């Protein structure tokens, strides 16, 4: 008899979610078929700021390193020896001429003065007595003369004792700014050997500098005279220009054989004490004027192996490199001597992105160069 085999369960699919995935993929493909590929972003001329060139007249100058110094720099020393008992001023403060700075122990000098005064009084009495006796013929004239000489010596010693006592108060010989006290209370000082402090007179203040051979070559006969300097400006460490101009007050008559330089010194008013002795500054000697030049911001001038160049907007608003010859700095600008002409549009920003021939979209900066006047029109 044949037995019926049991019914088998239906076979299971190995990937039960496969139909669903295929269906989703079909739908996504249908949707993406309707979309177009994204276009790359549109590019255009690079926006840049330009400065239109105008011929200028600027002062010609020579700029060198310099250092300030007091018009008078006085060392304050004791004229008598002794123990310093008191400091009578505040370090770094202005003082007037004759103002007391230090006090040296007075007691020994008071005693010496009293002794000198007693001797002087005694010799004076002796001189008067012998003078009367000589008139009566009681003593020889030589004795009276000796007494008079002794009295004169005693009077001189008295005067010296008075001066020594007065010198125990050390005073300021000139007005100015005081320095640090080299000796404090309790120190023993010797006459003229110990420096007590120093005083710098800062109104006016002096500025010392030197011109090298290359600078001297710009003057007639390679010599600078007071007539060649129209004025002197000070460029401070932060780049600003001191408000007051100075004048030359010393010009060396010979060249330093060691450095090959000529020493000069200028004088500046310093009523607000804005300048202090010892500052490093730059002295700008104004030597005349130069016409027909152009001022370009320092950041717009690129230094290359072949020299300086600027980027200008050329034909069809495309970038064109232009070699130039630079002069000196004037404020924040380069003085351009050659390579530009009126109407040229110099690019002053986005320089790192520029390439020759690149199209740009220029706009004016609205900031004409400072420190210069337009060049006079030619007749």
Describe this structure in words.
The protein is of the alpha+beta class and 379 residues long. Among the domains are: 96 residues, conserved putative lor/sdh protein from methanococcus maripaludis s2 fold; 98 residues, Elongation Factor Tu (Ef-tu), domain 3; 62 residues, Helix hairpin bin (Helix Hairpins, Orthogonal Bundle), CATH 1.10.287.470. The chain contains 4 helices and 21 strands. The strands form 4 sheets. Strands 2, 4, 7, 9, 10, 11, 12, 13, 17, 18 and 21 form an 11-stranded antiparallel sheet that branches. It has a 4-stranded antiparallel sheet with strand order 6-5-3-8. A hairpin with a 2-residue loop joins strand 17 and strand 18. It is elongated, with a radius of gyration of 45 Å.
Task: Walk me through the topology.
Layout: H1 18-33, E1 46-52, E2 56-77, E3 82-87, E4 94-95, E5 100-104, H2 107-136, H3 141-167, E6 169-171, E7 176-178, E8 188-189, E9 195-211, H4 213-216, E10 231-235, E11 247-251, E12 262-268, E13 280-297, E14 302-304, E15 307-313, E16 319-323, E17 325-330, E18 333-338, E19 345-347, E20 360-364, E21 373-374
Parallel strand pairs: 1-20
Antiparallel strand pairs: 1-19, 2-9, 2-13, 2-21, 3-5, 3-8, 4-7, 5-6, 7-9, 9-12, 10-13, 11-12, 13-18, 14-15, 15-16, 17-18
Under CATH, the homologous superfamily of the domain at 62-70 and 201-289 reads Efflux pump adaptor protein, beta barrel domain
- First-to-last CA distance: 138 Å
Mean pLDDT: 83
CATH architecture of the domain at 62-70 and 201-289: Beta Barrel
Q: What is the N-to-C succession of helices and strands?
A: HEEEEEHHEEEEHEEEEEEEEEEEE
**CATH third-tier fold name of the domain at 62-70 and 201-289:** Elongation Factor Tu (Ef-tu), domain 3
- Globally, the shape reads elongated
Roughly how many Å is the radius of gyration? 45 Å
Give the tally of β-strands.
21
Oligomer, anyone? single chain
Outline the low-pLDDT stretches: 1-15, 18-24
CATH class of the domain at 62-70 and 201-289: Mainly Beta
Portion in strands: 35-45%
Question: Describe the biggest sheet?
Answer: 11 strands, antiparallel
In helices, the fraction of residues equals 10-25%
Please report the number of helical segments: 4
Structural class: alpha+beta
């Amino acid at each position: 008899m044949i037995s019926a085999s049991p019914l088998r369960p239906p076979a299971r699919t190995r990937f039960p979610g496969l139909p669903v995935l295929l269906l989703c993929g079909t739908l996504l493909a249908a949707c993406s078929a309707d979309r177009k590929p994204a276009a790359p972003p549109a590019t255009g001329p690079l926006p840049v700021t330009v400065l239109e060139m105008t011929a200028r007249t600027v002062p010609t100058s020579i700029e060198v390193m310099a250092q300030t110094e007091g018009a008078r720099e006085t060392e304050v020393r004791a004229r008598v020896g002794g123990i310093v008992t008191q400091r009578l001023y505040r370090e770094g403060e202005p003082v007037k001429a004759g103002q007391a700075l230090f006090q040296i122990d007075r007691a020994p000098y008071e005693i010496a003065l009293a002794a000198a005064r007693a001797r002087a009084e005694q010799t004076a009495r002796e001189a008067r007595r012998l003078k009367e006796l000589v008139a009566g013929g009681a003593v020889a004239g030589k004795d009276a003369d000796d007494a008079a000489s002794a009295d004169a010596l005693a009077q001189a010693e008295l005067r010296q004792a008075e001066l020594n006592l007065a010198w125990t108060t050390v005073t300021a010989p000139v007005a100015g700014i005081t320095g640090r006290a080299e000796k404090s209370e309790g120190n023993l000082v010797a006459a003229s050997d110990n420096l007590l402090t120093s005083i710098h007179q800062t109104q006016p203040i002096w500025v010392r500098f030197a011109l090298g051979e290359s600078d001297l070559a710009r003057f007639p006969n390679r010599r600078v005279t007071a007539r060649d300097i129209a004025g002197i400006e000070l460029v401070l460490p932060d780049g600003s220009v001191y408000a007051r101009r100075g004048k030359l007050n010393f010009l060396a008559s010979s060249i330093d054989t060691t450095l090959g330089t000529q020493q000069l010194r200028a004088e500046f008013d310093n009523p607000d004490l804005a300048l202090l002795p010892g500052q490093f500054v730059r002295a700008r000697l104004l030597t005349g004027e130069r016409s027909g030049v152009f001022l370009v911001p320092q950041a717009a001038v690129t230094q290359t192996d072949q020299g300086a160049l600027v980027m200008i907007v050329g034909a069809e608003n495309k970038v064109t490199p232009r070699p130039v010859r630079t002069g000196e700095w004037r404020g924040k600008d380069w003085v351009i001597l050659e390579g530009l002409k009126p109407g040229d549009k110099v690019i002053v920003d986005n320089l790192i992105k520029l390439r020759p021939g690149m199209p740009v979209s220029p706009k004016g900066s609205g900031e004409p160069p400072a420190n210069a006047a337009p060049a006079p029109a030619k007749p």
